[in-house]
Design goal:
The structure holds two protein chains of two kinds. By secondary structure, chain A is mainly α. In chain A, about 65% of the residues lie in helices and about 0% in strands. Chain A contains 13 helices and one strand; from the N terminus they run αααααβαααααααα. Chain A is globular. Chain B is of the alpha+beta class. In chain B, the strands form two sheets. Chain B has a six-stranded mixed β-sheet. In chain B, β4 and β5 form a beta hairpin. In chain B, α2 runs parallel beside α4. Classes of the chains: A mainly alpha, B alpha+beta.
Chain lengths: ~290, ~220
């Protein structure tokens, strides 16, 4: 798989094709699997993503600790805000939905991780459904997202324990921004700018879950991560460019992750987890889990 | 090599790829050591597994894995109840398996019995659902579960690799990787053989029947 988004963009431009096509071709070559098999596997992931979106939007799920749940449905049925009636509000709802399913031990696709699993399905299925885009294009978009994620994995990290939340929901935002941009007709170069724009907006984001649970703020970080991805898509498609190339922004994320204190890397030792309220809630909820058992 | 399908996946029951999906895979691997769902299991959780495991369903995922549930099986949510109904007697304990900088924070020791077979496995969940078994019955090993794997300890005799390769070839099993390590000449030799096809129980018993083999296990591929 590509180690550099610039290389992938160059190859796509040279052959007049998409990043999805060069990603699928690299996967075919690396893994020795036929394209049809790779597309089928991505199609199965897409079906699980759609299932998680639908399940979460029902609004009756609660996490093991009871800290999160039911908020996705509020964006469907609650009072209007400035984004009412736009795909933006729907994307936020879908991001919360998938992450509420995850917190309730439902089935999701870890893309790139379970903790960041809401961003990609929210942005891609939200935009596709708003524009009447079909499954083939969504599978292409998942290939582009996978390419971006693979580059982040090789150059930086996709683990909150290693790089903070910028490596989970941040990476997910970069993947969703690039994939969404291409799905809506953006050029390979615009995809590069979308990735850089999304990833720069999440630099330094710490991983600070209450009690170490993938619940709070994780569920909401997926919604704000999706919002950053949407902003990056909007800017990139408008022709806005970001002067630092995506590869270098990703390298920066890795550098910041390595320098990040261990308190901010999924240990619940700092950030929101260490606030007075965060500590109190974690104590109460962990006690609750122990008491109720199964 | 990073694959697109590692990034867009695995499909799994939430909430944590390390604390839930990885934990389930460790249960699946442990189950292989006794050839099926154990009658009794003692599960000792270390580090982050011990601290935040309950909130992540680590207990349910390990017990689900011991019963053969894969990481995307929704029965994991109810695994503890199912285990009680099906007579899997499990017990969880919190423990310290070593110094913080020496033992991975998500490590578990699983002691299991099934009929007259029993085994002890130590393994870690490394993140993103990847796992590593580091010890079986006190012997240090490295098993990832990315392939069907045969692990054995044998006396260091000439021709041992050839003999085992022949047994595998007779069953049309292709070797992907083979690692042979020994502490000293003539001492115990450890063999970890990753293979492309799933070997059946006969392959293990054939290997086990060799006079110079002390023990042999087969572990299933548990990755997606």
């Amino acid at each position: 798989m590509y180690h550099s988004l610039a290389d992938a963009i160059r190859d796509a431009e040279a052959t007049g094709t998409t990043l999805a096509a060069v990603a699928l071709e690299a996967e075919r070559r690396d893994q020795g699997r036929p394209l049809s098999e790779i597309r089928d596997a991505l199609g199965r992931a897409l079906a699980v993503m759609r299932g998680a979106v639908s399940r979460g939007l029902v609004g009756d799920l609660h996490s093991t600790s009871g800290l999160v749940g039911g908020d996705a449905a509020k964006l469907r049925t609650g009072p209007d805000g400035p984004m009412a009636g736009t795909p933006f509000r729907d994307v936020l709802a879908r991001a919360l939905a998938v992450q509420e399913v995850n917190a309730a031990m439902g089935v999701i696709v870890a893309a790139p991780t379970a903790g960041g699993a809401g961003v990609l399905p929210a942005v891609l299925t939200g935009l596709a459904d708003a524009r009447g885009i079909g499954n083939d294009a969504l599978i292409d978009a998942l290939a582009t997202a996978g390419l971006i994620g693979a580059i982040v994995a090789q150059r930086a990290s996709l683990s909150g324990a290693e790089g903070g939340c910028q490596a989970e929901t941040g990476a997910a935002a970069g993947m969703a921004a690039g994939a969404g941009t291409e799905m809506l007709g953006g050029t390979p170069s615009q995809v590069g700018h979308a990735v850089a724009l999304a990833q720069q907006g999440t630099l330094g984001l710490v991983c600070d879950p209450l009690g170490g649970l993938v619940e709070l703020p994780c569920v909401f970080r997926n919604a704000t991560g999706a919002a950053i991805a949407m902003a990056a898509i909007e800017m990139a498609l408008a022709g806005i460019t970001f002067a630092i190339p995506a590869d270098e922004v990703i390298d920066t994320m890795g550098e910041i992750g390595r320098a990040m204190d261990v308190r901010y890397r999924e240990t619940a030792g700092g950030g929101l987890a260490a606030t007075p309220t965060g500590r109190r809630l974690a104590r109460e909820r962990l006690y609750q889990i122990k008491r109720t058992g199964d | 090599m990073v694959s697109l399908l590692d990034i867009i996946g695995p499909v799994m029951v939430g909430p944590s790829s390390s604390h839930t999906a990885g934990a389930c895979r460790l249960g699946l691997l442990a189950r292989c050591l006794v050839g099926g769902t154990p009658d009794r299991a003692r599960v000792e959780l270390h580090g982050s597994f011990a601290r935040t495991g309950e909130g992540h369903g680590t207990d349910k995922a390990i017990v689900g894995g011991l019963m053969g549930f894969r990481p995307d099986d929704e029965r994991i949510r109810d695994a503890l109840g199912i285990a009680e109904r099906e007579g899997l007697d499990y017990r969880f304990e919190k423990t310290t398996l070593g110094e913080e900088n020496e033992v991975h924070p998500n490590t578990v020791r699983i002691t299991i019995e099934r009929g007259d077979r029993s085994s002890v496995m130590v393994g870690s969940s490394l993140g993103a659902g990847r796992v590593l078994v580091t010890e079986i019955d006190g012997y240090p090993v490295e098993v990832t579960g990315n392939y069907h794997t045969i692990v054995l300890v044998a006396e260091d005799v000439p021709g041992s690799v050839a003999r085992i390769a022949t047994i595998l070839a007779e069953d049309a099993i292709n070797i992907a990787t083979l690692r042979l390590t020994r502490k000293q000449r003539g001492g115990d030799a450890f063999m970890v053989i990753e293979v492309d096809e799933q070997p059946d129980e006969k392959v293990r018993t054939d290997i086990r029947a060799l006079s110079w083999v002390r023990w042999a296990f087969r572990l299933d591929k548990v990755s997606a």
